[in-house]
Amino acid sequence: MTDFQNPILPRMAYITNIIDETSDTKTFKVEFEGGGKGDFLHEPGQCAMLSIPGVGEAMISITSSPTFKDFLEFTIKRVGRLTTVIHQLEVGDQIGIRGPYGNNFPYKLLEGKDILFIAGGFALAPLRSLINYVLDDEHRKDYGKVDIIYGARSVDDLCFKRELFENWPKKKDTQIFTTIDRPEEGWDGHVAFVPTYLEELQPSPENKYALTCGPPIMIKFVLQNLQKLGYQDDHVITTLEMRMKCGIGKCGRCNIGSKYVCLDGPVFFLDQLKQLPQEY
Amino acid sequence: MAVYKKITKDNLVQFLQELTKDRILIAPVREHELVSFSPVADAGKVDFTFQNSFVPPKSWFFPQTEQIFSFRIEDGKYELSAPSLPGGTVLFGVHPCDLKSILALDPVFDGKFDDNYYCTRRKNTIIIGLGCQSVGRNCFCFKVGGGPLESNGADIFLTPTGGDFLAEGVTNQGTDLINKHSRFFSDSSAEQVDKEKREGTDRLLKQSTGLKGDFNLPKVKAFLDANYEIPYWEDLSYRCLGCGICTYLCPTCHCFDINDYARSGLEGERIRCWDSCQFKDFTLMAGGHNPRPSKKERVRNRFMHKFKYHEDRYNIFGCVGCGRCVQKCPVNIDPRKIILDLQEVAGND
User: Fold this and answer.
1) Whole-prediction pTM value?
2) What is the pLDDT of residues A193-229, one digit of tens each?
3) Looking at the partner chain, which of B82, B111, B255 has a beta carbon nearest the beta carbon of A6?
4) Which CATH class is domain A114-239?
5) Fold designation for A11-101
6) Looking at chain A, which residues constitute the CATH 3.40.50.80 domain(s)?
7) Binning pLDDT at 50, 70 and 90, where does residue A1 land?
8) Is the backbone peptide bond immediately before A205 cis, with ω within 30 degrees of 0?
9) Which of B253, B254, B297 comes nearest A279 by C-beta?
10) Which residues contact B233 (CB under 8 A, 6 or more apart)?
11) Contact call for A248 and B115, based on CB within 8 A
12) Predicted local confidence at residue B348, as pLDDT
């Protein structure tokens, strides 16, 4: 939908639904005037710049799968000035959008493979676009087993609960392993940090790619544990975040060495990541 | 097809005046001791003898502050409108270092996503380059692959010859413009222009009083490719004040910030303005994480950008040797010295 004559000029779209995921995270369904997503066609893992004129703009991952034909979804945590204002928006309000930007999860490469998703907290959002792509009835046959290890601080902090507890477990060859950090009344599921749960589950690396998103400290230990389990660096995929303004490789702030996260990321294989300066 | 002509200073003024009839003329003008590239109505005001403008002429293509769009809310709906951009323009008097800087900026603003604001101005602008008449003590274009009479990047290039000028049509657009206004020019030849540039360059370089020592940029680049963590950056950062003047005056720096202003709830604008990787907030993320938290990382980023990252990405070095940062740095941080230091660390073989 981005105007290629002027890629930094947003288009105004409408919020058509809002889901409260947690106490500080909401999922916004977005459609263009007249309904649908128009020619805004993205790949799983890509991002978009969302904005409110007069307030500001930020890069947000597109959490909806391209297989959702009629709308886009963005899961937004209230962390700063713009996201606080976005959280006050209501159904029917307008929001600026431009994109899609960045590279994407290598969903073609993953065909025929088992996939292990590992996510912490609100960072399930970027992986969700690929999860729903892979689990879509049309694509499910193209992929092997899907395991999802997902944890959050508390039950309240678990996002996408309906998919997590109802939709995804019903899919063929799909297992969901949910955990929370500390015991909680009414929770009879697993209690452990995500990296520890990964260690307990010991998923085999055979014919498998691992994709992980989460807070930096979780990522650090997840990557260590994946290595212990025998996952090769070119079979481990994660995403990076940097501050961004333009989203199109001009404004200069999201560079890690010679790479711009807005153009060359956000998706990186671990072996690529190891080639980059540790400045993120 | 290139053309080679001569033009007297008086005719040059008249030629420029003629061009203002159907184009905007942006040219160096001196106000007090400051030379800046500004819109000029009277070509007689153009300064032909300046050494270096304070702010580089990139500001024509990439203004210090620029509106991206304005908006108003009507009947509960946002109306966004992008500003109209300038039409036909002549950017006159660009020295070779700054010409080269525009070639370094082009691939940044062009590319997968064209930056409409930069690219429209660039497309609508004819650049008339002007060779240098003196080499300042901070100039080092000739150490980073350029020269005081290099025409690369110009549509028309003028070589000063004691009051008058030799003129080359470097691009077709430049040649056409000369041919269209041939009454201001007299004939010259490729040989004469070539000879004058060669001899002029030799003469100018002999004047150079700048820091001695030859640069080996590929070697510096190879060293930086292999060495990210070196104590040198931290040592250098102790001196840096983080004021950002180097990046504001650098002709190849392209970083910008985007900010929104709303005069009321019902109207406002989004603008972009120059920003600097030397500022702490530059990379500060919502939530508080900062990947470049100290001056060490920020100073390193600037030099790595000039001598490695820009080359990695666009095959052109990010330093053109204009010397502005050398001249204006309040604590005398000097990229020439840094290059020589890094060469020394890399070994003088």
Assistant:
1) 0.94
2) 999 999 999 999 999 999 999 998 999 999 999 999 9
3) B82
4) alpha beta
5) Elongation Factor Tu (Ef-tu); domain 3 (2.40.30)
6) 114-239
7) very low
8) no
9) B297
10) B296, B297, B299, B300, B303
11) yes
12) 57
